[in-house]
Specification:
The complex is a heterodimer.
Chain A: H1 2-6, E1 11-15, E2 21-25, H2 26-29, H3 33-40, E3 48-50, H4 56-71, H5 77-88, H6 93-106, H7 109-123, H8 128-134, H9 143-152
Parallel strand pairs in A: 1-3
Antiparallel strand pairs in A: 1-2
Chain B: H1 9-16, H2 21-27, H3 32-39, H4 41-53, E1 62-69, E2 76-82, E3 88-92, E4 103-109, E5 112-117, E6 123-127, E7 132-135, E8 150-156, E9 161-168, E10 177-182, E11 187-190, E12 199-200, E13 207-209, E14 212-221, E15 225-234, E16 240-244, E17 257-262, E18 265-274, E19 278-287, E20 294-302, E21 310-315, E22 321-325, E23 331-335, E24 340-343, E25 349-357, E26 367-368, H5 371-409
Antiparallel strand pairs in B: 1-2, 1-25, 2-3, 4-5, 5-6, 6-7, 7-26, 8-9, 9-10, 10-11, 12-14, 13-14, 14-15, 15-16, 17-18, 18-19, 19-20, 21-22, 22-23, 23-24
Classes of the chains: A mainly alpha, B alpha+beta.
Keywords (chain A): Ubl conjugation pathway
Domain SKP1 component dimerisation (chain A): 109-156
Family (chain A): Belongs to the SKP1 family.
Chain lengths: 161, 416
């Protein structure tokens, strides 16, 4: 077991929800706690590992992130930080949501943090109606309830319609 | 645009916890499940922890809260400032219940301020970030002078609760009465134990460190001599302890001491005045708290460079110490390493400074600062007035009775 981890050239295959296969170096895959646990517990690296919740586009992004972070372990933190902000820069909300879901499923703490932070920064100054649309959340307040809860939080609406 | 998937609540929580307090108040209006998520005490605690660390979200949410008296109309203002550059972040609205009244800030923790209204003796908690106020119920014991009272306020992590401690010196019995308020029960209870036999130093500032509130106090030695000491009350264990003030070769009556916290240690600033040096403050810190405590003198801060009398206000997280003066615009930061003062560009006078983090604490409690709060409060104040008059009457009766007994003993006949 220990010897297989030491072998850096070893690769494994991940399969996305839409059937695309990705060949990944083991040390890159180890950025994911989920994959690490699978490999630790006897799962043969020869098998194809299916990731039924993650589409090919998202998986490619996730693996790009993992590769950079796995290879950069000895390089400077500043370089990684600028990679992270560049990585998410022009991503739309749908892609960000897929990324945060994938990071959560694959247990990649660093990616989950930056994606969640990016979403938080985007909604920070938005009115609640717009936040509702972004998150596709159904408004389950009755008009009276909504008026009451708005009144309760009235001061937060200074400068909002 | 990718195909949309809705996020499970645990991820929504992970996103929302990174938002500032004001944005969260918007998010409460999104839907019912978001509202219950944000109002959950677990979420409120975690939000506070993340904000206090500051680093994990990439944005430093630690602020300095500045209370100042403005030049025109003597109005009290509160503002939040960046803890590094001191640039003003925003102005805070003063709640109606304290506007125009005399009060003292007892302490601040987790985004809450504990205030004591000197006239009515009402205690209240105020969260300026969510504009909520909680007026504490009436304590059990009263005292004839507000100046004799000492208060402490802190969060007790083990009990996951906020406590206010109140010391009422009893001039007749000699030992103090102590009562404790807990936010979770919203009630006062009497502390049972050996009281402390000393008087609190008037206007003494309290300092919270190592889980205990500290006050400067005076102890009667024999008949007249009052020796100064520090009284500590551990807010979790609820035990008192005495700590001597830093040893000094000058007679104590010449010294003015201010309790503080510097670098997470109990600190004592001692004012000293000599012909050669002028006025200076010696900064002492208590090492090995609770083990083999001893005071170390860290610095002597000389005031000759500023040509004005300054007193220490608060030590900041970056190691600087803020000083205030008696005149307008006198707010200075002192760099301990470079040993120099730097004036901070801010208007006002009578500054008070608090290390502050915005929080949602009191979201599920207390009242909004509205007219309802006002009428509730005024009722309470009226009640206090009545109670106070009653208290004075009882006291006067007792004094007369004591005097009568005294004269009787001496064989003198007096009629009232």
């Amino acid at each position: 077991m220990a010897s297989s981890i030491e072998n850096n050239n070893e690769k494994l295959t991940l399969k996305s929800s839409d059937g695309e296969e990705f060949l990944v170096e083991k040390h890159v895959a180890l950025q994911s706690t989920l994959l690490q646990n699978m490999l630790d517990s006897d799962c043969s690296s020869a098998d194809v590992i299916p990731l039924p919740k993650i589409d090919a586009r998202t998986l490619a992004l996730v693996l790009g992130y993992c590769k950079k972070h796995a290879d950069a372990s000895s390089s400077k933190q500043g370089e990684l930080n600028s990679f992270d902000s560049e990585f998410l820069k022009d991503m739309d909300m749908g892609a960000l949501f897929n990324l945060v879901l994938a990071a959560n499923f694959m247990e990649i703490k660093g990616l989950l943090d930056i994606a969640a932070q990016k979403i938080a920064d985007t909604i920070k100054d938005k009115p609640h109606q717009e936040v509702r649309e972004i998150f596709h959340v159904e408004n389950d307040y009755t008009p009276e309830e909504e008026a009451a809860v708005r009144e309760e939080n009235r001061w937060a609406f200074e400068g909002f319609p | 645009m990718s195909e949309f998937k809705s996020l499970p609540m645990e991820i929504v929580a992970d996103i929302l916890i990174r938002l500032p307090v004001k944005s969260l108040r918007h998010c409460i209006c999104v839907c019912k499940s978001w509202r219950s998520l944000i109002a959950d005490p677990f979420f409120i605690n975690n939000h506070l922890l993340i904000n206090r660390q500051g680093c994990s979200t990439g944005i430093d949410n630690r602020r300095i809260l500045l209370k100042s008296r403005k030049a025109f109309g003597n109005k009290i203002c509160y503002s939040l400032h960046c803890c590094k550059t001191f640039t003003e972040h925003k102005q805070l609205k003063v709640p109606n219940v304290i506007e125009g009244r005399n009060y003292k800030i007892i302490a601040s923790c987790n985004g809450l301020l504990c205030l004591f209204l000197e006239h009515s003796r009402v205690l209240l908690l105020w969260n300026p970030s969510i504009k909520k106020v909680k007026i504490l119920p009436n304590p059990r014991f009263q005292s004839c002078s507000a100046y004799e009272l000492a208060h402490g306020f802190a969060f007790v992590p083990r009990a996951n609760d906020y406590k206010v401690v109140r010391l009422i010196p009893d001039m007749v019995e000699g030992s103090s009465k102590v009562e404790i308020y807990t936010l979770s029960t919203n009630s006062w209870r009497t502390w049972i134990g050996d009281g402390i036999r000393c008087a609190m130093a008037h206007h003494s500032r309290s300092a919270f460190v190592n889980g205990a509130v500290h006050w400067t106090a005076q102890k009667k030695c024999g008949n007249q001599i009052h020796s100064k000491l520090i009284i500590a009350f551990h807010m979790d264990d609820e035990v008192f302890k005495e700590i001597p003030i830093p040893g000094y070769d000058l007679p104590i009556c010449y010294l003015c001491g201010i309790l503080s916290v510097v670098g997470e240690k109990l600190a004592y600033f001692l004012e000293r005045s000599t012909i050669e040096d002028g006025v200076s403050w010696d900064l002492w810190v208590l090492e090995d708290y609770g083990v083999a405590e001893f005071w170390t003198k860290l610095h002597t801060i000389r005031l000759h460079s500023v040509e004005s009398f300054l007193y220490p206000l608060q030590s900041l997280k970056n190691g600087e110490i803020l000083f205030g003066g008696l005149n307008r615009k006198e707010l200075y930061s002192f760099d301990l390493e470079r040993q120099e003062f730097k004036q901070i560009e801010v208007d006002g006078a009578s500054f008070e400074v608090i290390n502050y983090t915005e929080s949602l604490v009191l979201l599920n409690e207390g009242i909004h600062d509205s007219s309802d709060a006002m009428s509730d409060f005024e009722e309470k104040e009226e009640f206090k007035d009545k109670e106070e008059k009653e208290g004075i009457r009882v006291k006067a009766k007792r004094i007369i009775k004591d005097a009568m007994n005294f004269f009787k003993c001496k064989g003198i006949n007096v009629r009232v």
